[in-house]
Amino acid sequence: MTRRFLFVVPPLTGHVNPTVAVGSLLRDRGHDVAWVGHPRRVRPLLPADAKLLELDDGVSDEVWRPVLDRAKSVRGLASFEFLWEEVLVPLARGMRPGVERAIEGFAPDLVVVDHQAFGGALACRRKNARWATLCTTSASIVDPFPDLPKVNAWVESKIAMLVREAELENVAHADLSPELVIVFSTRALVGDVAFPDRFAFVGPALGRPENMPFPWDSLRDGKRILVSLGTVSSEVGASFFDTVMRAFEGTDLQVVLVAPADLAKNPPPNFIVQSRVPQLALLPKVHAVVCHAGHNTVCESLAHGLPLVVAPIRDDQPVIANQVVSAGAGLRVKYGRLSPALLRDSVMRVMNEPSFREAAERIARSFEEAGGARAAADRLEALA
What we know:
Layout: E1 4-8, H1 13-28, E2 32-37, H2 39-42, E3 51-54, H3 61-73, H4 76-106, E4 110-114, H5 118-126, E5 131-135, H6 149-165, E6 181-183, H7 187-190, E7 199-201, E8 224-228, H8 230-233, H9 238-248, E9 254-258, E10 271-274, H10 279-282, E11 288-291, H11 295-303, E12 308-310, H12 317-326, E13 330-332, H13 340-352, H14 354-370, H15 372-383
Parallel strand pairs: 1-2, 1-4, 2-3, 4-5, 5-6, 6-7, 8-9, 8-11, 9-10, 11-12, 12-13
Helix pairs in contact: 1-15, 4-5, 4-6, 9-13, 13-14
């Protein structure tokens, strides 16, 4: 029986990509699937024939750019507070009316709401629509500051404020669906933490389209690593990229460095520098990954059994980095205070000490068993 699914996504690449894999499967099964989001940032990430119900894109680049620039400069607890004050709360307020209109017009059987698009959860409650939560990062469901209980109380106060503004009754865990919470990770990575039965750990949702070119003929025999800071942090990574080049210049390693050309000038001969890469296609051809501990990059790397060196910068990245280290699948280094020697030694350790790859392969098996996008689509079908 055909069902109608509406995905509510924030204008963030790492949060849209997993929905593409899941939504494409649902479409292939004959269901009517649509997304609701900001067209300038969401449309380029969707399949060309995807149905997008457009939210108001009235926030100009002149307003949005300073927010992004500020996001790149804050760290630790300040970064967490900034995320809520300057991004998540305004995003929830701005999205809710448009999502309500989308629910009215599309009449979905199930709304699938990204956890950081809280306006979608509020809209579902106001319109009595059934909804499921997608946690594109497992940091959303663990306590990022277990030694600072006042932080949790502060977050709860922000959620309660948004609930009041929506003229709804506040309930426990108002940001999560009472019926289904899909987490794109597994307990093998998240750790031994108790979760309610409605939490479904499906592993990463791979399968997004990758259309960017890559000089495949330039890959040479021997060991290779991928170094990436993701789509946001790469713009402020000049010092980090310089450290990477000094760390591996003259070594036998071939390094694929994802960086803007103007921030990685005069790379050594054993480097391939690209502003974007087809990451899923490239990962089977490398032997380790150095990254910022972004959830998607970490999970995609581990899905290929690759050990990691993680240098978290902000937001959920320290939480994900700790999960990698606790699982034994990699080493953590300090992004702002990293020497070429330490980076080189860390990469050599994860490549040469078998325990790191064994842990990564164990997590990869847990991902495969969890089912990924297929399992997520199955759970959404069953709920709809």
